[in-house]
Amino acid sequence: MKRATALCAAALAVLPAAAFAQEIILVRHAELQAGAMAAPKNVPLSPAGKERAQRLAALLRDSGVAAIYVTDFSRTNETALPLSQELARPLTVISKGDQQDLAGRLQKNHGGQVVLVVGHTDTLPELIKGLGHPDSVKIEAQDYGNVFVITPRAGAAPAFLRLRY
Length: 165
What we know:
Blueprint: H1 2-17, E1 23-28, H2 47-60, E2 65-71, H3 74-87, E3 91-94, H4 99-109, E4 114-119, H5 124-130, E5 146-153, E6 156-164
Parallel strand pairs: 1-4, 2-3, 2-4
Antiparallel strand pairs: 1-5, 5-6
């Protein structure tokens, strides 16, 4: 696991140096308290989820994240909070709604920036599509370790990278 995290960190650390116009990093919220599948908005992270949130902060600490978006669910907020605190960046809370609208907002408001979006199994695939990735992406119910990196490109499908942490 440490090796995979190190490789993921190395890949993400190179991205801002490559002079891309924008990077959008997407992750699913971390693990919930036991028995909380399909949970309401206020279910907190489990101890494993809190550990994963700390690993995410360590992974993205030096990636140049300028903005952090989360949904109005406790689990996305708690997943992003360690990074938010470390970088002194506020969380931008959005509804779980229209991912096409969010895709446009990210591209319009954050050109030239690295942005983190913490979402859900049912929002991230739609957002990835909305950002122009042509292939469908599936996130399994018990899979919390994906990091998706989207690099929009003018006149072409975005560069797409799927990592694990």
